[in-house]
């Protein structure tokens, strides 16, 4: 079964692609550009589409709208992966044709369960040709990121990454953790530079959007202090408080650099064990 994945953020794309590839008879079709994904969907019949919310060309809501407008694609299940806690996003997404949500940060078991359920429903739909695409449960809520209950104590004050909890989310896959660590390390300079450029033009809306991308990348790991620092930056940016946002960015950037340092050591250690 073909599963289309659309996300401009390299870390998220890598995680989801690898997890989908491990599912029986699932073949990930990964895209960083929404327009390219739509073109593929127009020419093919995917069994599931997994789409991010914030993307440069157009967001996941507009993607779902355009997908539904394609001939014969009305019933393809759409799973949106987002770090947004805005209830309006959920409402607008549902109205656009999104069937289910997965909130960042997520674990591999939760993602696999959502994908499996949607693919089962899709298979039944194709058999009967009468069932509508599955819809999200009414009691499902988008919640803010809080540390996992089983988070172990920090070894020292400056440690920002909980490796054990991160591995638990990835079903103990050390190789996948090392891979997404390397992807994160490569992409962080570009993400931080984009925020700095937005600050240089005093474009707080752009600061918010670029920070959202950075937060989404951080969500692949259990690093709540880093994640919440970026969320604080977004709060100040959306309220157009330039001074507070600048201070928040300095704090967030320092924590991101700590995370990069810890992930670099982790990736090096994993490589030596191979």
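Sequence proposed for the structure above (274 residues):
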């Amino acid at each position: 079964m073909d599963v289309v994945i659309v996300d401009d953020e390299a870390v998220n794309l890598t995680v989801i692609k690898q997890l989908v590839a491990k599912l029986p008879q699932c073949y990930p079709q990964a895209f960083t550009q929404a327009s390219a994904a739509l073109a593929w969907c127009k020419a093919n019949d995917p069994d599931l589409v997994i789409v991010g919310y914030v993307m440069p060309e157009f967001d996941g809501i507009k993607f779902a709208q355009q997908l539904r407008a394609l001939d014969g694609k009305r019933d393809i299940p759409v799973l949106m992966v987002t770090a947004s806690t805005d209830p309006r996003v959920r409402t607008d997404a549902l109205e656009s044709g999104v069937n289910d949500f997965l909130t960042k940060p997520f674990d591999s078991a939760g993602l696999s369960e959502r994908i499996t359920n949607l693919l089962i429903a899709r298979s039944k739909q194709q058999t009967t040709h009468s069932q509508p695409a599955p819809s999200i449960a009414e009691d499902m809520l988008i919640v803010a990121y809080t540390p996992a209950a089983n988070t172990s104590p920090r070894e020292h004050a400056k440690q920002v990454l909980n490796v054990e909890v991160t591995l638990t989310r990835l079903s103990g896959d050390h190789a996948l953790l090392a891979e997404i660590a390397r992807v994160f390390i490569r992409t962080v300079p570009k993400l931080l530079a984009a925020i700095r450029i937005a600050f240089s033009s005093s474009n707080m809306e752009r600061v918010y959007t670029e920070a959202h991308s950075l937060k989404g990348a951080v969500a692949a790991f259990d690093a709540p202090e880093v994640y919440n620092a970026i969320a604080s930056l977004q709060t100040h940016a959306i309220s157009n408080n330039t001074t507070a946002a600048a201070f928040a960015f300095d704090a967030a950037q320092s924590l991101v650099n700590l995370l990069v340092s810890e992930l670099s050591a982790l990736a090096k250690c994993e490589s030596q064990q191979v």
